[in-house]
Design brief:
243 residues, alpha/beta, seven-stranded mixed β-sheet
Amino acid sequence: MKFSIGGPLKLAFRPWVEGLENIPAEGPAILASNHLSFSDSFFLPAVLDRKVTFIAKAEYFTTPGVKGKLTAAFFKGVGQLPVDRSGGRGAGEAAIRSGIEVIERGELFGIYPEGTRSPDGRLYRGKPGGLARVALATGAPVIPVAMIDTEKIQPPGKIVPKLMRPGIRIGKPLDFSRYQGMEGDRFILRSVTDEVMYEIMKLSGQEYVDMYATAAKRQLAEAEKAARQAVKEEIAARQESGA
């Protein structure tokens, strides 16, 4: 299914790619990418000859009905691996174990260090758990990847994508084997994650924000809620004064 989906995607959107030579022809590697759009997990595999396995929400695979079965088949076809994210720390451990298993099979494992899509197109602080722990537990090289303009193709909440050319820049592999076996050291995890994020920033040209994207989303949601409340209060005040 990868090729049946990848072909039409490349034909319709004509993504441009730089650095394909940095993807090994065989053997394990971790592809660490920025995350701008839901479509990132489709465009990157579409331009590669090798299968890339990403972590996806388990809900995509367990929704009942015909639509749910079609959705599950689609995500499995493009290399998505279901992980239940509802269990807090346990969910993170499950994702890490899944990543290690992919690497131990000699395959490519895709991960978004930010943990969620950017709310505004900027690059946010990487979470030090999954990426660094999988890299240090396996010794696999980390390849930084920058998705370009995918947020313009399919902004959050939009179902139908806009036809335009996205870009993908693939950086040179980063070797963290010197830290292998030190995945229990939080300072090492932070250092590895920050180094990868710096390389992604150079590739993408994004403005870097030293906070987690999840925190930024909460701030935006709170600001929108406050703005809506202010509008309601203003309307109520006008109605009261005009009564």
